[in-house]
Amino acid sequence: MDGRNRLLSLRIVVRVLVLAVGVPMLPLWLSGRWDWWEAWVYALIFVLGFVVSRGLTARRHPDLFAERAHFKSHENDKRWDRPLVLLVVLGLVLIPLAAGLEARLGGSTPFPLPAKIVALVLILAGYVWGSYALLENRFFTPIVRIQTEREHQVVSSGPYRWMRHPGYAGTLLASLATPVFLDSRWAFLSATFLTVVLVLRTALEDRALQRELPGYREYAQRVRHRLLPGVW
Q1: b or e along 181-204 (b: 16 or more beta carbons within 10 Å of the residue's beta carbon)?
Q2: What gap in Å lies between CA 179 and CA 188, rounded to an integer?
Q3: What's the confidence (pLDDT) of residue 8?
Q4: How far apart are CA 48 and CA 25, in angstroms?
Q5: How far apart are CA 226 and CA 232, in angstroms?
Q6: What's the rounded Cα separation, in Å, for the pair 209 and 215?
Q7: How far apart, in whole angstroms, are the C-alpha atoms of residue 122 and residue 130?
Q8: What pLDDT is stored for residue 69 in this prediction?
Q9: CB atoms < 10 A from the CB of 36, how many?
Q10: All domains in the chain, ordered by first residue
Q11: Distance (Å, rounded) from C-alpha 41 to C-alpha 102?
Q12: Could you tell me the CA-to-CA distances from 208 to 78, 140, 160, 203, 214 in Å, in that order?
């Protein structure tokens, strides 16, 4: 491995550690409340979920694992998607960051335990649904592009039988439930921001796929909804 590839691999490892471990731990680090059980459960779900889902992906679709690791090296990605990717990452970081800062500054009135249990179920459901989409779709890359070198084709199995963008739907479900589970009103603002960005990205990505990916327009006529069956 030459120096350039070694540096690239190191950057990938650091990025993965920051996003998969550092971000979920933000509520604990920022608040200093190491007895905050909800924050521990939240971090555990996302760290273990990341490890398991990516491990299964590497085993089932090793080419996708390599594609996701080097997504920045491609030149045929959609120019409009790069700032949106950054905004999505920002939204995902702002949710636990807001929760941790609010807790450090005294927090707000806790939500009732039944509401937290429902929120926890929704977080788990969102993560499982998004991971299911990742495992089912070997073209599930971080940035929008038509992967002609990998013989890109329409995926209509698994969760794609009911919605066209289940990965985004799972992310939104988990993100919108997190403020309740972590007792953070501030995090609702971050979740709303992320929702707006993901809805915009879904619309733009869907339009690009219908225009450029063979068979996708016919698939969109069969599977009518993008994120929420019966709504949109």
Answers
A1: bbbbebbeebbebbbebbbebbee
A2: 6
A3: 44
A4: 12
A5: 6
A6: 9
A7: 12
A8: 63
A9: 20
A10: 3-222 (1.20.120.1630)
A11: 18
A12: 9, 15, 17, 9, 11
**What is the pLDDT at residue 151?**
85
Mean pLDDT by 10 residues, the chain (232 residues): 51 70 92 95 93 87 72 71 93 96 90 97 96 93 87 94 96 97 96 97 96 95 91 85
Q: Say how far apart CA 116 and CA 124 lie, in whole Å.
A: 12
CA-nearest of 3, 52, 1, 50 to 23 is: 50
pTM over the 0.70 mark: yes
Contact by Cβ (8 Å): 160, 137: yes
| Interatomic CA distance for residues 43 and 204, integer angstroms | 31
How many C-beta atoms surround the C-beta of residue 142 within 10 A?
15
145 and 67 in contact (C-beta within 8 Å)? no
E strand residue ranges, the chain: none
